[in-house]
Q: What sequence folds into this?
């Protein structure tokens, strides 16, 4: 769904209900593929990006860390992500993943300039 | 001139002689290695009468591996691993001309059954032109046959018409194994479905999915490093459920180099050396325990701080967040690690121990009590 300034990415519908793995070599729906094909382009184009974390079979840490922590390593600042990325998790698992992603973003090392 | 020709002849002759001696040495060494191998084969697989020729005029003898009566990684670890190593050794040296007498087997645990299946499946993959056979499956202990059949052992052997054993109420039911190397999401979901087909729906399905996909992704990322490329990046997963006790066992196994050996490559070596000391680094049990308990402050000192979270957050996390009683059991190299937790009594324990016999690969087992929604919980 796209509004003037916001894009919503429902991972289960727009990407895969079975996301897993860190790198492209791990499988077809890896964290790296999600970041590069959907998340980073959306963050460049829209003012806010909402990511819905419910209704997938789950997420391994590798997927979440690479998809979201990887944004910081790829040069997006933590402050930028705090103001432009909205995480939505309503189910118990969704809430757990939301907390993990926030932790991965704050834990990720920013690249040396 | 004549002197030069004679010198050339002598040089050529001594060069030929040196080559001949080198060849002889190589042949001698190969022969010695073969004799050592055959000596070992005589011990692990003595010749026994082939069951199909027992009542015929042409009796045939075949090298036969006899398993111990109980295959179990908890109660009978050494004998179980020794059998698996014997099978691998025999497949390599005897080129399929041997038998495993499974009539001798009285009891097999879910973990041991998956290891047997994985060993035979791996061998089948490497020698596609040869067939494994179940010669006298009718004479096996029915509960062993049923468990192996449910897990998919006879699919690996390509044996049909194996009788079903009677299901005794209260016994564990096994789910068919799955194997692969990539795209770990769909098999994790398929395994969950197989578990739910045999009993209640999982209480926390996403947490099991997380643990499974991380265990399988680790195989791809870390487990295989054979320099000659002889290994494949495969994992095998399966499970068993006991609906009367509401207990589930989920298993992941690979034949890689093991978690303890891969820590160095992940950039944790220096950290571990500083935290544990150089002597401890030779102790796989302590390495394994460290891999499952490195906290974020420690990890921040590693070169790749973003890696290695899956072991603690998902694989150990499935037990530590499940609202019931359960344990995680991991075997890798010469280390065994066990984490137990009971959410009702707030009991938690973590134990690691050194093993006398090395396990070639990594084995992960989750045992969860009250794993499913009881009917009254659904209402």
A:
């Amino acid at each position: 769904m796209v509004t003037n300034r916001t894009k919503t990415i429902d991972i289960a519908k727009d990407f895969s209900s079975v996301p897993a793995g860190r790198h492209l070599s791990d499988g077809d729906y890896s964290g790296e593929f999600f970041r590069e094909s959907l998340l980073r382009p959306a963050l460049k184009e829209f003012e806010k990006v909402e990511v819905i974390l419910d209704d997938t079979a789950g997420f391994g840490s590798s997927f979440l860390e690479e998809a979201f922590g990887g944004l910081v390593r790829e040069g997006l600042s933590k402050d930028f992500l705090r103001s432009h990325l909205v995480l939505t998790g309503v189910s118990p698992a969704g809430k757990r993943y939301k907390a993990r992603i926030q932790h991965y973003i704050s834990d990720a090392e920013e690249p040396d300039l | 001139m004549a002197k030069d020709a004679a010198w050339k002849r002598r040089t050529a002759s001594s060069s030929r002689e040196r080559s001949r001696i080198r060849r002889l040495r190589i042949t001698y060494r190969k022969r010695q290695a073969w004799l050592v191998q055959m000596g070992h084969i005589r011990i692990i697989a003595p010749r026994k009468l082939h069951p199909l020729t027992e009542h015929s005029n042409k009796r045939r003898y075949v090298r036969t591996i006899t398993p111990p009566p109980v295959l179990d990684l908890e109660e009978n670890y050494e004998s179980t691993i020794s059998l698996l190593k014997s099978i691998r050794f025999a497949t390599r040296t005897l080129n399929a001309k041997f038998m495993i007498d499974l009539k001798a087997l009285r009891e097999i645990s879910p973990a041991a059954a998956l290891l047997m299946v994985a060993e035979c499946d791996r061998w089948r993959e490497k020698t596609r032109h040869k067939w494994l056979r179940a010669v006298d499956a009718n004479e096996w202990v029915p509960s062993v046959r049923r468990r192996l059949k449910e897990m998919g052992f006879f699919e690996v052997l390509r044996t049909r018409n194996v009788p079903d054993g009677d299901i005794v109420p209260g016994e564990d039911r096994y789910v068919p194994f799955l194997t692969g190397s990539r795209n770990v999401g769909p098999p994790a979901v398929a395994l969950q479905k197989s578990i739910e087909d045999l009993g209640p729906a999982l209480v926390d399905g996403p947490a099991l999915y997380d643990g499974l996909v991380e265990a399988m992704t680790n195989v791809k990322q870390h487990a295989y490093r054979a320099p000659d490329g002889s290994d494949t990046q495969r994992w095998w997963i399966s499970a068993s459920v006991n609906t009367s006790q509401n207990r589930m066992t989920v298993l992941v196994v690979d034949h890689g180099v093991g978690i303890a050996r891969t820590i160095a490559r992940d950039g944790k070596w220096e950290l571990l050396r500083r935290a544990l000391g150089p002597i401890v680094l030779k102790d796989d049990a302590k390495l394994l325990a460290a891999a499952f308990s490195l906290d974020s402050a420690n990890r921040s000192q590693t070169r790749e701080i973003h890696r290695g979270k899956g072991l603690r957050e998902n694989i150990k996390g499935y037990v530590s967040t499940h609202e019931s009683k359960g344990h995680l059991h991991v075997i890798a190299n010469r280390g065994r690690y066990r984490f137990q937790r009971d959410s009702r009594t707030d009991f938690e324990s973590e134990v690691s121990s050194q093993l006398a016999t090395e396990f070639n690969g990594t084995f992960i087992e989750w045992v969860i009590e009250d794993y499913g929604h009881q009917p009254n919980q659904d209402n």
About this structure: Residues 204 and 322 of chain B are 7 Å apart (CA to CA). The two ends of chain B are 108 Å apart (CA to CA). DSSP finds 14 helices and ten strands in chain B.
